[in-house]
Amino acid sequence: MTEQNTSSSQEIAPDPSFDADVIAPGFNTVLQINQAVRRLLVDYALAAAILGLIPLHGNKWVEALGLLALGLLNLKLIREIGKCWGYPKGQDMFALVSSLLSVFGAFAIAIMARIILSTMSFFIPLAIVISAPMGHAILTWALGRATHQFYLSTRQIDPDTLKQVLQHQQPHRP
Amino acid sequence: MKVNRRHFLLAGLGTGLTVSGATEQARIHQVRAQQDRAARKTLAEHLSIMDAAYASELVWDEEVEKRKELLAFTNLTPPTLPYDRDMSKRMIQLCKLAVQQFKTKRSNPNYDGSIDVLPDYRRHLDIYNQLTNFTATQDIIEDYFKGLDNNNVPVSTNDLIGDTSAGQSIKNVELTLRDEIRQILQHRHRITVYSGLALTSSDHNVLVFRGTQTQSEWLKNINASQVDYVSPTGQFYGAVHEGFYQVTQEIQPSIAEIAQQLDPSIPCYVTGHSLGAAIATLAAFELVQAVPELKDQIRLYTFAGPRVASPTFATLHSQLIPNAYRIVNVGDTVPLIPPVTMGNTYTHVGQEWSFLAQFGDTLLNHVVDTYQIAVDQEVETDQILNPMQPLQLG
Question: Do B238 and B310 touch, CB atoms closer than 8 A?
């Protein structure tokens, strides 16, 4: 019994090659990037919701202008997320395909959210007010998450580039 | 507290939600107000339609009341003599003889109009001398190709040339020529027909008029406009049916001429069936106009008579000729026309004696034979005979 305990103690014993002091800063860096991306997602989703509240009804050109603004906002978000990661390359085919599916999913849940809220407005008339902002916000959030997941799927990160990014982001951290 | 980008965005979102919510609330309120207005408008239109329907119903009720008043027109002077069933039987028999007289003349131009050679003549009529036959000259159109149908006529050229386009053209020309020849050879001429007869006897005289038999008479029957009846002295007696009046005026010799030949000391029966009833009604009036001494001697027996004149004329007619009797089959449609009001106002003349003989056919309910059978069986009554009596209009 004692031998077994001794054996178990030996199995869970830390790997001599595992250096927490070296690895922890790397995890902290990823978590910091994740926090930065979350802040971006919240801010851009709020901005998209505000865009959805602007009454751009009645004219197809005005409505197209609203959609164009939403598109530009999302491109800006994708660019900002990429900047957080330092635009790392080397994603495999699976990462590309899953990102593409996530983009489709983002549009799908945004449309579904609008349909659900529009349907709810039959019973709660004011629900129609949050239909467009909720759809815009969900689309922006989901696209941002897909972008974030895309960069998280990268195989390797250039340490120099990452260092530059982190140094650039340092003043903005709370 | 430091204001950062998130605070601006949250404030913008809150403001946007508040403004949009208020705008949407106002829009919902406006839509509901519009719906309320539309509902009220629809209700108002519905109510106006209902009002129009009720107004229309009121107009119809007034029309019904007016017709009921005209139908219940009782301003006629009642007869001073009782209805004579024996004479009524004789009158309808003479009406039938008048029709046979017309038909015999049409089939045999040499026929002189004597009623004693007719099939329904009976010995008890030997008491009468045939004073005259009433005649009328009418337009008759005869077609020498009657019964010839172009579709059944073989075209000779078709056999010779065959069914070619040229052959078809020649066939069309031939058919067109045939139609033209038919029009040219159509014979339009005037003939004299018997309209009735005048009989005399030692104790009474009889004037008989037959019903509608010719195309010309049918055309006059449907001319239901009214003309003023003015006596030779210029007195106005109301309005009468224009077509019936014209037929009466076409009769030769005229009623006034015959009136001069009648003995005013003995009764004078005037009778007729259908159109003959209408003529008899007018003729009786003309007799009195021509010879006022006949006033108390006239006995008017009409069978299946249509409405002839306005209430004014009917009132004056009954004052001059109170002993007027109107025998009708309530299953006969002819006594129902013209309607009591159809632009002009019509009413019947004479005391009604009715019976019901329903054969399910307009003509059978109307013909002389139906009336003759009913009168011979003495089924006519002066009581109200109306199968619809339990129902009240309006």
Answer: yes
Q: Tell me, what's the pLDDT at B183?
A: 67
Residue A15's pLDDT is what? 66
pLDDT in tens, B300-310: 999 999 999 99
CB–CB contact B20 A55 (8 Å): yes
Give the angle A132-A136-A142 at the CA atoms, nearest 5°: 145
**What is the token pair recorded at B318?**
């009954």
Shortest distance between the Cα of A88 and any Cα of chain B, in A, equals 27
Task: Count the Cβ atoms, other than its own, within 10 Å of residue B112.
Answer: 10
Nearest chain A Cα distance for residue B22, angstroms: 9
Give the pLDDT confidence score for residue A44 in this predicted structure: 96
Please name the member of A43, A53, A125 whose beta carbon is closest to the beta carbon of B20: A53
CA–CA distance from A87 to each of A35, A44, A156 (Å)? 17, 19, 11
Binned at pLDDT 50, 70 and 90, residue A69 comes out as very high
Query: How wide is the angle at C-alpha B290 spanned by C-alphas B289 and B292, nearest 5°?
Result: 65
Q: pTM of the entire structure?
A: 0.56
Tell me the count of A-B CB pairs closer than 8 A: 41
Beta pairing partners, B136: B193
pLDDT in tens, B210-240: 999 888 888 888 888 899 998 878 889 999 9
How does strand B341-342 pair with strand B268-273? unpaired
Whether ipTM > 0.90 holds is no
Cβ neighbours of residue B277 under 8 Å, at least 6 residues apart?
B209, B211, B271, B302, B303, B304, B305, B306, B326
Q: How far is A50 from chain B, CA to nearest CA, in Å?
A: 5
